[in-house]
Design goal:
mainly alpha; two-stranded antiparallel sheet; 7 helices; 2 strands; globular; transmembrane helix; ABA4-like
């Protein structure tokens, strides 16, 4: 079956740990997201969340380099061209762990961007904070949710941002 894991514990030779031993580290994304939601203006929040996301990005690259030559990482003749191929890749323990680390890093970086963008646009933090759990758990749905909130806020409360770009207007001579 495509959904049967193809390997047991994944030893990581360069790191000296298994995927089971490293997996709890990925849960550091939860407190980092909580910092973004509850303490966005704490002077250490930007640094802590960047370090956490950066750590996951580096872990992902290490995992990628360790598994890129292995048969489990890319079954012979497989591609990402069909859903069946993608399912085959993700049914492998190594690839599933790498995907989870990828999601943890990327979703945290997107959440950081949401908070920074809301602040730079003058959007109240509670609106940005509402999108962070969605981004953390559902990825792209969170960014769409935030962009919808941002657009609605600008239409209702910042109409001056909707003015037409400078230049000739229709009918002007």
């Amino acid at each position: 079956s495509l959904w049967t894991p193809t390997s047991k514990k994944m030893p990581l030779p360069y790191l000296g740990y298994t995927d089971d031993e490293l997996f709890p580290l990925v849960h550091g994304a939860f407190p980092a997201h909580c910092l973004l939601m509850m303490y966005p203006s704490w002077k250490y929040t930007p640094m802590v969340t960047l370090v956490v996301a950066g750590f996951y990005a580096m872990l992902y690259v290490v995992l990628l380099t360790e598994t890129s030559g292995g048969a489990a990482a890319q079954p012979l003749g497989s591609t990402f061209n069909t859903l069946e191929d993608v399912m085959r890749h993700l049914s492998d323990r190594q690839n599933a762990f790498m995907a989870y680390v990828h999601f943890a890093s990327f979703d945290l970086m997107v959440s950081r961007w949401i908070v920074a963008d809301a602040w730079s646009q003058g959007i109240p933090h509670f609106l940005a904070a509402a999108s962070i759990p969605i981004t953390w758990l559902l990825g792209p749905a969170g960014i769409i949710f935030y962009l919808g909130l941002k657009s609605g806020y600008i239409v209702v409360f910042q109409k001056d941002k909707l003015r037409k770009a400078p230049g000739k207007r229709r009918g002007a001579s």
